[in-house]
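In response to reviewer comment 3 from the previous cycle, which asked for concrete evidence that the modeling workflow produces usable outputs, we include below a single protein chain processed end to end. The sequence was submitted unchanged, and the resulting structure tokens are shown without manual editing.
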Amino acid sequence: MTRVCFQLQVDPDRIDEYLRRHAAVWPEMLRELEASGRRNYSLFLRPDGLLIGYYETDSVADSDAHLAASPVAARWERYMADLFVGDGGRADQNATALPEVFHLADQLAQHEGAQP
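The workflow returned the following structure tokens.
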């Protein structure tokens, strides 16, 4: 399982609209995210528009490929495109991935059985 964290920038003048649209994500888009293999998917938004996303998946490449080929995901990304700062491409394909630098369970597992 891989943990993925990414960031995007929502236009600060469009935050209310971003929140409105995410309060009622299309059911077919929710099913498409699930079918892509993404689990424990969350989005966090700062007041200045910095968006942080997190999900877990067994294969980032397979998940990305599934969504890239999905007409539903393409339609959703077009629907959301006007809310982001940037080149106007698909936000899901232009997000900046953040490297993981610490995970509590991983470090605890390294120390299991270690002598103090």
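Strands lie at 2-9, 39-45, 50-57, 96-98. We consider this sufficient to address the reviewer's concern, and the full set will be provided in the supplementary archive.
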